[in-house]
Amino acid sequence: MHDALYADQGRLEDPHLWARAERLGLDVARFDADRRTEAARERIARDFRSGIRAGVATTPTLFLPDGSLLAGRPDEATWRRLGL
Asked: Smaller CB count within 10 Å for the chain: N or C?
């Protein structure tokens, strides 16, 4: 699901999420119910606040071993420079 979401960030509305869940073989009704729980909302809010405190301003943001942040999608040259 992670890869599917990042591959098409412009389509995060319910019908697109349901289609992705179905393609991945998930129980779509359970997926939808689970993502709407209070526990999920609290987890998302907590993770969001944590990211903001850490300096995240965009997605993706990578935390590098030297402690710096790399905001945005890295290009191939950046991946090579990082040895990844």
From this structure: C
